[in-house]
Amino acid sequence: MAPQYQIRADHDARTIVVHQAYSPAIADAALRAGRFVAPFSFQRMTWIKPSFLWLMHRSNWARKSGQERILAVRITREGWEEALSRAVLTTGDPAALAQAAVHVQWDPERSARGAALNHYSIQVGISRHLIRAFNDDWIVSLTDVTPQVRKAATLMRSGRAAAAQALFPTERAYPLSPTLESRLCPGG
Q: Which of 185, 138, 149 minimizes the C-alpha distance to 63?
């Protein structure tokens, strides 16, 4: 059984993959530039999610308006951990949250069919005060995984869950330092 609060992600020794859903205009411009550019907004918080299935639930498998394109954003672990070290839980002190450069929220993880599970998935909100570092310094690559998402969704709808799951990224526990774990995990 998975721990109640644990970051599960596609990661290696240097990087971690987070997922984001965008409109075609934002996704196309970002993919051409290899970074986020207009019409992406640098004036608002952007939420990054290591959990592929949580984003599939949130974007309805890339079918929600404005979320038709799914990008796998590979960022440095150094940047990821910088974000986590500056984070405030959304359930914490409202005054601290208002001043925080990074917000962390835990939502129920989702199954491939969208059912809420008994453990949580992290969502990390990068504020406009840190978004340039995210974009300019942390991003290693952007990959459009929309075709893979659409194929997996079709397989799920046709009852071929095992074939769909073969298209999902491999996610495993992301190691947190005891300091970050106690800071980010409710009751930690």
A: 149
